[in-house]
Design brief:
With 357 residues, this protein is α+β, with helices and mostly antiparallel strands. The chain contains nine helices and 20 strands. A six-stranded mixed beta sheet has the order 6-7-8-3-9-10, with helices on both faces.
């Protein structure tokens, strides 16, 4: 991955008493598709607005291409924002909408015509020049909003939940469109979403945020397979998260049963969180499992069956292509590589230790 383009340094932002961003540090590389992912109110849109120049941080600074742009007006930045509400001008044609920013910049008519043609071709809406926004579908309006941003040749495109208003099929189509656009244009995308699947599908790098703090930064694979804490594990996809005891290196006790794992360095008899993805739970004949349970619910999901298995007083979520009817007695097995061990948060740690003692 190429050079660092944006550096967010010690950025904090409060609205009244409400601390929305807490001393955030993050850098974004050139030509990267970086997604800010997190629940509503985690601060991801505020961070995007600070990048775009629509909000100012209370503390910290934004460095762009080596220059401090913290106090620079939005129109002076080499960034363009595409909002969830497409904000197209209803009384202008598509061509006029796309040309708006270029006219303000005083570009020649020939230049503007070329750019409109190029942008419409890029978003697969060639020939839509004279149409009005209200004659377009949601997906088409979204593409026009992107075309309008692209013609300004930004170095960075900021996208704030741009697919939120679209239905599922259209959203998936647009995800592939955006990946294609990024590759063709060679510009940096900073994308805000609360949709985990969207983030996993599109991103080079995912930044998981919660309550104004960064929880984890990594590739989609890292974030999914190696969550650093229970919040990330729970937020990205579905997980079984157990309070467990690390008996010793490579051995963890979950629900009173010892499971081999591959993690080391947690000490002996230490309280930990153990994360097991539902697709990593193997259901076998009762005697072949490390633990036995009963299937309590079964749903067909198309690609797999989703089952709840009650074992040792705890419900395990299981995804499998094999079907076990409700009431079936099963054994539970998990490959040691598929058990992810994490430290417990500090406050719970002390509490858990005293319980163990």
């Amino acid at each position: 991955m190429s050079n660092k383009l944006i550096d967010i340094v010690n950025v904090s932002k409060s609205f009244g008493e409400n601390l929305v961003l807490n001393d955030l540090n993050l850098y974004i590389r050139e030509n990267e598709f970086l997604t800010l992912l997190g629940p509503s109110g985690c601060g991801k849109t505020t961070l995007l607005r600070i990048l775009g120049g629509f909000e100012s941080p209370n503390e910290g600074k934004v460095i762009f291409d080596g220059k401090d742009i913290t106090d620079l007006a939005p129109n002076k930045r080499q960034l363009n924002t595409v909002f969830q509400k497409y904000a197209l001008f209803p009384n202008m044609t598509i061509a006029e909408n796309i040309a708006f920013g270029l006219k303000i910049k005083g570009k020649s008519n020939t230049y503007i015509e070329d750019k409109i043609h190029y942008a419409l071709k890029l978003v697969n809406l060639d020939g839509f020049n004279e149409r009005m926004p209200d004659s377009l579908s949601g997906g088409q309006q979204q593409r026009i909003a992107i075309a309008r941003a692209i013609v300004n040749e930004p170095k960075v495109l900021l996208l704030d939940e741009p697919l939120g208003a679209l239905d599922l099929k259209l959203r998936q189509d647009m995800q592939y469109e955006l990946i294609r656009l990024k590759n063709e244009l060679g510009i940096t995308f900073v994308y805000v979403t609360h949709d985990q699947e969207e983030a996993l599908t599109m991103s080079d790098t995912i930044v998981v945020m919660n309550q104004g703090n960064i929880q984890q930064i990594g590739t989609p694979e890292d974030i999914y397979n190696e969550p650093q804490n229970a919040f990330v594990a729970d937020f990205i996809g579905e997980s079984n998260i157990f309070s467990a005891i690390m008996v010793e290196d490579k051995l963890v006790k979950i629900q009173g049963v010892k499971f081999p794992c591959v993690d080391t360095g947690f000490g002996k008899n230490k309280p930990v969180d153990a994360v097991i993805r539902p697709e990593d739970v193997d259901l076998v004949k009762p005697k072949k499992g490390l633990m036995q349970g009963i299937v309590t619910s079964l749903i067909f999901k198309g690609v797999h069956y989703e089952m709840d298995v009650m074992a040792n007083g705890y419900e395990w979520l299981v995804h499998s292509t094999d079907m076990f009817p409700v009431g079936t007695e099963v054994g539970i097995r998990v490959d040691p590589f598929d058990i992810q061990i994490m430290k417990k948060p500090e406050s719970e740690d002390a509490e858990a230790v005293s319980i163990e003692e």
